[in-house]
Design brief:
Elements (H helix, E strand, L loop, with lengths): L1 H26 L7 H23 L8 H25 L3 H12 L3 H13 L4 H26 L6 H9 L2 H15 L5 H12 L1 H12 L6 H28 L5 H11 L6 H9 L3 H28 L4
Helix pairs in contact: 1-5, 1-10, 1-14, 2-8, 2-9, 2-10, 2-13, 3-4, 3-6, 4-6, 4-11, 4-14, 5-6, 5-12, 6-7, 6-12, 11-12, 11-14, 13-14
């Protein structure tokens, strides 16, 4: 039991301290709150694409579980469609609704996926899990522009949305990684070292920016919204998606851990940057990231403990 708690704590604790560094720097006047905007541009356009590229580049072709891939794709699309109907009715402000929907839909798979899999499974089949997680990130990146266009009621054509999807730096990073994987291309060592170094900075830089933008002054209505989204992301979504996956499709072992990493992890840190890029409420998105990240210490422990106790992984 203690080891399961340590798995979730060891993933989350460094993220908290990265954010604390940013908050302290702002409190001391070393950086301004506006620096978060500049950090987000670097994060969104350079750092995350490098991370996603490496995730695919370093993954390995394994035994394809087409049933799992189809289930993940269907779950993400159905969840997005349902949330597009429900969330705007409950959250009238389009900027708030867009980030609320995105926060519920998108987990921090890039940061949590592999450490979580290693904590539950050891080193077995990590390459195949990495490829599965990359596919889910690819789908999430493609959905994001549609969510913000619909929720923010922007008058935009299908062609413009398609352009936003195709020119999304996150998708480009993954697409280049897939190209290298398919063609079995390898980067020269100096380029690999450069990309690896940029990738290593992704998570610290993201949470330092979040910490610099964080404010303790939150209205009661906003606290209620943050609490509701946190519960939906960490409890309701995994209960539905993972529950159906186990009960109906019989997923277990590697497949179940992949579902856990996609649907039970806290809100992706990139939702903060994406909100700024596409016109959502970035401050609220940051609150979602920090709230779900903190709460995930407990919820991930519960999910890991449950699947271990039931002998599913």
């Amino acid at each position: 039991m203690l080891s399961n708690l340590l798995v979730s704590f060891n993933i989350v604790a460094p993220l908290f301290f990265y954010g604390l560094v940013g908050y302290i720097l702002k409190a001391c006047g070393a950086v301004s709150e506006g620096i978060a905007t500049d950090i987000n541009k670097i994060y969104f356009c350079v750092l995350v694409p490098c991370t996603l590229f490496l995730s695919v580049y370093n993954s390995a072709w394994g035994d394809f579980d087409l049933r799992l891939y189809a289930y993940i794709l269907a779950a993400l699309l159905i969840l997005a469609a349902v949330l597009l109907v429900i969330v705007p009715r409950l959250v009238p402000d389009g900027r708030d609704a867009s980030v609320s929907l995105h926060a519920i839909l998108r987990g921090n798979t890039a940061v949590y996926g592999i450490p979580l899999a290693q904590g539950v499974l050891g080193t077995s089949d990590i390459g195949n899990i990495a490829f599965t997680l990359c596919l889910s990130i690819l789908v999430s990146n493609a959905i994001a522009p549609v969510i913000f266009a619909k929720c923010c009621h922007k008058k935009t054509s299908a062609g413009k949305i398609l352009k936003q999807i195709v020119t999304n730096p996150l998708l480009i990073g993954e697409a280049v990684g897939i190209l290298f994987l398919l063609l079995k291309l390898r980067l020269p060592q100096f380029l690999l070292t450069t990309v690896t170094g940029l990738s290593a900075a992704t998570t610290p830089i993201a949470f330092i920016g979040l910490g610099a933008a964080f404010s303790l002054q939150t209205s009661a209505s906003r606290r209620k919204l943050v609490t509701s989204v946190t519960l939906a992301r960490l409890l309701l979504v995994p209960l539905l998606v993972i529950g159906v996956g186990v009960a109906v499709f019989g997923f277990s072992g590697t497949a179940l851990v992949a579902l856990l990493a996609i649907f039970a992890t806290p809100t992706a840190v990139c939702t903060f940057a994406v909100a700024e890029i596409y016109g959502g409420n970035a401050r609220l998105a940051g609150d979602y990231v920090l709230s779900t990240t903190a709460a995930s210490i407990l919820t991930l422990f519960i999910w890991i403990f449950a699947i271990k106790t039931l002998g599913l992984a």
